[in-house]
Records
---
Amino acid sequence: MEIKKAAVAGTLESSDCMVTVEPGDGTVELDLESAVIRQYGKQIRKVIHETLERLDVTDAKVTVVDKGALDCTIKARVECAVYRSNDIKKGLPWGGVIR
Amino acid sequence: MKNAVGREIPEEILKLTGKEPFQGNNYKQGVPFRRMGPIIRPNMDNQHSKLVGSIREALEKCHAHNGMTVSFHHHFREGDLIVNMVMKEIHDMGLKNITVAATSLGKAHDPLVPMIEDGTITRIEASGVRGKIGEAISAGKLKGLAIMRSHGGRVRSLVTGETKVDIAFIGAPTSDDYGNLRGIGGKTNCGVLSYSHVDGDCAEYVVAITDCLVPFPNFPAHISMTKVDYVCVVDAIGIPEKIATGAAKPTTDQRKLMMAEYCTQVVVNTPYFKDGFSYQTGVGGASIASTISLTKIMQERGIKMGFGVGGLTKPMCDLLDMGLVRVLMDTQAFDLDAVSNVINPAHHRITAGAYANPFNKGAFVNRLDYVILASLEVDVHFNCNVVVGSDGVITGAQGGHPDTAQGAKCTIVICPLLQGRIPAICTDVTTVTTPGESVDIVVTDYGVAVNPNRPDLLEALKKADCVPLKTIEELRDIAYSIVGEPEPVEFEDRIVGIIEARDGTIMDVVRQVKPIPEH
């Protein structure tokens, strides 16, 4: 999917994360800030990249501010931000690329 | 060399500190030592005045010098003004290489960080540190070592002479002009002066700082004129609303209430719950809720507590007012109700030494039946960590945790399985503060685990069928299944602090943290 415009999903509440996607410069650029970066930084990056790959996002600037969110939350926030950047609100592919 | 909790204590640290690795809780039982006495300058001239006009004058009269050790108490908690006031003066005098031997340091003392950076302060000894000082130590900014000791361990280090305090500064809510000090009666009250008692006994110079000078004699004195060299009157020694807040509102957090209920069930279904039992608890939401629900069961069954001890809160003072506890032994007042409750004749002040010093011929903690504690992390060996955050940064204090945990017959640690994404029940704690041999039961929101070295307690709880019993490994596995197994935090080689066991041996070391990895 293409990132058509900047979009945000999530909050800065504890156990949530805020994901911002913006049009990129030809690659995926990830900026991660996390309350648990020392213990879960690698895992969080992995989840974000896997989710983007599944959505076929190859060109985006992604900023994630994580407050200790679980993997399922991070996935959901990334998915939501990507679809919002495309203004897609209906007919989401539940069970397809959104799992 | 590996110590009794399996932690590697490097040879260089043993050499540098002259300490031994931790060898188990009762290693020093009955081992004789000589109490150290301080140098004293007597006062017999009836024309001599102890009053000094300023902190600077006090420092000069006490021969403040490079490399000296100064001490403070933390009864004013986050409202303390004394430490910053004195250290600023020491800094302005240009003194260097100072050891700050406080009973604890908190966020109120963030202004000390620049003094750590410029070499004014090069060593810290405290129960622990919170806020920016902890971050600074973990980042390697303190030139020397930070030594974290329990409340009982600190008293031991002073009476054995291991810590030699040159000047003790005792913030006193009231003082007369001859240094009789009380924790009450002034405008900045903290109730008790328990932590400073040993400083009065062991420091070479003792300076009382007060904002309320009262007529002689200020009696009964909590710390006597017989131990005080100088008295300095200042505008304010603390910020009252930050010293003790109103009693914490009983929690409505369902998770905490559930853990409180498990904890109460554990207490009432173990064999020490009978008339005359003794009890200590903390200030956390679950601890307070547990005391409240325990009160109901005590009333129903006609069981009274023999004594309650420790840092006290309103629910404990309520027990006294209701006649449900014979006496309270107070080392620290956590809320205003506890501060004002000290007028009750059955509410006794005790020194930190009487409370917890392992090198006494006996301390109150040794006579505890139950202690209810919290912990940042508990591992599958039942070791607890209350000082270093799961990210490796120093962020807490030992307090009386290791003292009461060793002393009590039944030590219960309440700990939610997860703190955000961080699993509080883990394979190995970041840093050991309290050894697993001291910890009997761990209460979480996902079940209760009993230390395998206490089959008697496990049997009692099985029979009562009152709480969901799990092994500690099962609890850890549940935690990891939800949040994933954390990666080990990466540290630099440099050791920035040591966690001292109660008896002065080394429980663990704290290393400098690596900078947060870049994107």
---
Amino acid sequence: MRVRTGVRVEGVVQGVGFRPFVHGLATTLGLAGLVGNDAGGVFIEVEGEDDAVDRFLRGLRAPPPLAVIERITTRPLPAEGGGGFAIVGSDAGGRRSALVSFDSATCPACLRELRDPADRRHGYPFVNCTDCGPRFTIVTDVPYDRPNTTMAGFAMCADCAAEYHDPADRRFHAQPVCCPACGPRLVLRDREGRERAGDPIEEARGLLRRGGIVAVKGVGGYHLAATAADRAAVAALRARKHREDKPFAVMAPDLPSVRLLADLEPAEEALLTSAARPIVLLRRRAGAPLAEAVAPGNRSIGVLLPYTPLHHLLVSEPLVMTSGNVSDEPIAYRDEDALARLRDIADAFLTHDRPIHVRTDDSVVRVFQGRELPVRRSRGYVPRPLPVPVGGPAVLACGAELKNTFCLAEGGRAFVSHHIGDLENYETLRAFREGVGHFERLFGIAPAVLAHDLHPEYLSTKYAVERAEERELPLIGVQHHHAHIAACLADNEHAGPVIGVAFDGTGYGADGTLWGGEFLLADLTGFQRAGHLRPVPLPGGATAIREPWRMAAAYGVPATLDVARRNAATWDQVVAVGRAGLGAPPTSSVGRLFDAVAAVLGVRDRINYEGQAAVELEQCADPAEGSAYPVRLDDAGDGGPSFVVPGAELVQAVVDDLLAGTPVPAIAGRFHNAVGDLVVAAAVRLREATGLTTVALSGGVFQNLLLLKRAVTGLEAAGFAVLVHHRVPPNDGGISLGQAAVAIARAATEPAGPAPR
Amino acid sequence: LSHGAGGKATHNLIEAVFMEAFRNPLLEPLEDGATVNGLAFSTDSFVVTPLFFPGGNIGDLAVNGTVNDLAMCGARPRHLSAGFILEEGFPIADLRRITEAMATAAERAGVNIVTGDTKVVQRGKGDGCYINTTGIGVLDRDSTLSVSAAQPGDVVIVSGPIGEHGITIMLARGELDIEADLTSDTAPLSELTAPLLDACPHGRVRFLRDATRGGVATILNELAEASKVSVVLEENAIPVRTAVRGACELLGIDPLYVACEGRMVAVVAEPAADAALAALRSHPLGAEAAVIGRVGADPPGLVLLRTAFGGTRIVDVLVGDPLPRIC
Ligand SMILES: [Fe+3]
Ligand SMILES: [Mg+2]
Ligand SMILES: [Zn+2]
Ligand SMILES: [Zn+2]
């Protein structure tokens, strides 16, 4: 029987070769009809014998590599007769929900062209096709069409136009399609911005070989490159960038060269070679040919593979590829700005004239128990939506202050933004504001509810409050650690309730004090604080975070220890500050407990990047250490299961062991084990009281694999189901997803209240 | 309590309660004092713990505070009233010390205390002594000073090292066993405003404000918002005494938010900057005056701090007590 069926396909279906795929499928099956893009995705009409139409619909389920189908809906149409299958023009009207693709690593077909001397794109650093290339970072508006990308200024030559318009071609409607005749041009500039003579790639490679530092314009911003084995070059990069210890990532040309740097397991290989091409944190091999300054005192090394044709041409031996910035500034992505800000760091600029619209950092991931554990979710992942419960209002969740991301959610999709960074920095705050506007346009979402952290000084909170006042929108404040646990729940598509363990640096508590070692009974709508670390003073507030030795003082370790001697000039004063509670807010943070132990063990007194003391404590711990200090849960005294954890006893155990002459790696190992055991003991106690058997682990402290492994192994052995992060980071980069999930869940249980004030 | 700390909470309180009730054209600009018929008129209440501290006591503060508010309107302070709220049993000897300090401060500032009032409250219902002063000053010059008068290109000057008063008070509470070579900076700023205004052509001094509650940061935020300009500060240019810096580091406090009682912020048109600085420096109170930043057009309403490494940090109004934002 002849039928005509209307089909709507939603998801990442534009600019990924979907229409030619549909065209090919329909033609093969002898079907008539049409296919086109609109703001909602792809619309199709197919007409022919009913079994052929059925086969067509099944065939849609195996789309091209970059396509992600979220939903296919069909409706019967009256048959029209006639033959032929047409690709019709885009329709920009209607509701915008077609999804922009993420930026994707160069595909094998393009790579072959890049290396083929006979191809017209041989050695052309901007080769791409519908299966690969820049997307999110070049899109300025929807629908995804060339005029709405930063390729708008490049008029296609006849050859490229022919490919672009040919449904049978790999480049059919590939918006960034270009070639040496019509596309962007690579140049090498000196510090003054003058173009240097010669082949840019060859010149840049020569500079790198001679120990130079080259700023390289990538997909989401500028990198600073130096030869990773060259001690002097890496040292110079550190000095000029004012980055003292934080590890640099290394771009290796291929997998065999990665294997010389680090040990690889299959899941890590898969991530390294995925279309997202994140930085993967790997176990560094002894004797890896890397300058020590690449990742000082670190057993792991962040490695990534080339993800643009330019990288493929440039990288023939491992290069440090670090973000193009000074100190903690956001990475430079505009050409003028890069030249101005990086001229004292880079010896030359390998750059081009295709603008970057959205600054996007490299993503960072690691593998835990064979699965991905994100550390920073950005290029290659964003803007893939994450699933959240359908229903409820459109939400803008404004995220945290450091490692900020925001999240726009509506209709079951949560768009967690690229890594924005530290909002205290003006450039970053601007990126936040512009990013929010860009996402709202791109995904056609007008937020009806604003979710935010409870910390009144977070610039993200202030943004939410300001905007809520301007637009008379309701605000939903979400406690920081509840947001962490909610992020973990959303990450795992779990509704709770669970036993939530949120360990991080500090977050604003529901009681106005600083939390950070929290055991919550939580679902998406709310939580109960069932246990926490006993608060200690944070002497000097943020200064105590920058100076971990102060936490040793706050935990009351003896003044006879080395840590007190090293800091003798102000030790007594800091102790007094803590005792007086003046300039010393109380905190139940586990991150600060790690700081105290790191300082006591002489690992680190002052940090140069966030979390450094804890990172180095993990690095120095002996992973083979099996024993642990005993942990205790004290009744909170409310007659219920609530408890307080005396962290000072752990610090005391560390001090005793140190004075007994136990080697530092063993002590660090025992301490890690104790914190892991603490998680298990607390979960067991809360299971007895509540019957809950699922535990969610979140917060930046759970980036510590030694701790995570001890906790997860112990919990599983005790019969718990354990949720850890796979899609968003356990650190504050995941907060916005948690806030959004809470806002959606609360809206489902209670109607949103009136606008505040 | 955060409603008195001079930050956003105070601002909201003023807007929501007082402006709502009292709204009128003279109050509207929310300057430190009102100017009526050639006179400047201002009032202030003084609550401080401890009442006596290195470099002064509540009496000096009460006189200088109102003198300074008048001076910031561009006026020559003339007459003050003084109202006392004393807690039952407050030692007469202490009250004498306070009034002596007031007399000395008034004499130095060239003002007379011409009227007053005293109330006694029950024991335990006051912290010993509260003082309110109200002052009248003469506007010798026709003033254009205003919090909304800053223009891009103007320079931002402080009259001396910041934060001494606030840190002195904090340490004088004795909760910390810290000895620091510090005294309050309380002083009559009329001694500086007269030479400053004389040295600059009419209209070139845009704005004056004594950096009391909330410190320099809060004042500049008010300026940025009211004038719809940006203020960009240079971290290295901000004068802070070593002892203040040390105490701030110890306590984790940003000196930009610490109160002063004898320092002012002056915003001056660029061409008059040198003359303004010279005029301030010619007086002992302003010997360490310094240009700390500039007014810009963009981003309006924000105060930014360029750090030593060239980063640009936002110096925002504090909503309440500052707690670390680092996770
Ligand atoms: Fe956190
Ligand atoms: Mg005042
Ligand atoms: Zn390709
Ligand atoms: Zn071309």
